[in-house]
Write a structure and sequence with these properties.
Blueprint (H helix, E strand, L loop, with lengths): L4 E6 L5 H17 L5 E6 H8 L6 E4 L2 E5 L5 H17 L11
Parallel strand pairs: 1-2
Antiparallel strand pairs: 1-3, 3-4
Helix pairs in contact: 1-3
């Protein structure tokens, strides 16, 4: 299974909305038992070239912006993470694929 990355993009020091987004993500990760998923707070200025225009807070999963400019509710975060897990399984190499060039 590919590793799932979760980033919360903020402008400058994290604002209250960014902190609320982080808290919602942490709650969902805990509820789903996803302790091996890294959650990072990222300053938008450092990654602006990667994502283009970003409105804070933005929730980025596996390099794709999922929400922008609002605090996603826990059920939305849960759906986003479950979809990322499905995609991770679908795109992971099988034992048959390993060792082939």
């Amino acid at each position: 299974m590919r590793r799932i990355t979760v980033e919360i993009v903020s402008v400058g020091p994290p604002c209250l909305r960014c902190e609320a987004t982080k808290l919602n993500v942490e709650r969902v990760l805990s509820r789903l038992g996803l302790v091996d998923i890294a959650l990072n707070m990222v300053d938008a200025e450092k990654i602006l070239g990667r994502y283009g225009v970003v409105v804070s807070p933005s929730l980025v999963v596996n390099g794709s912006i999922k929400t922008m400019g609002r605090i996603p509710k826990e059920d939305e975060v849960e759906n986003i993470l479950k979809e990322a897990m499905k995609q991770s399984v679908l795109h992971s190499p099988t034992s048959e694929d390993e060792g082939q060039d």
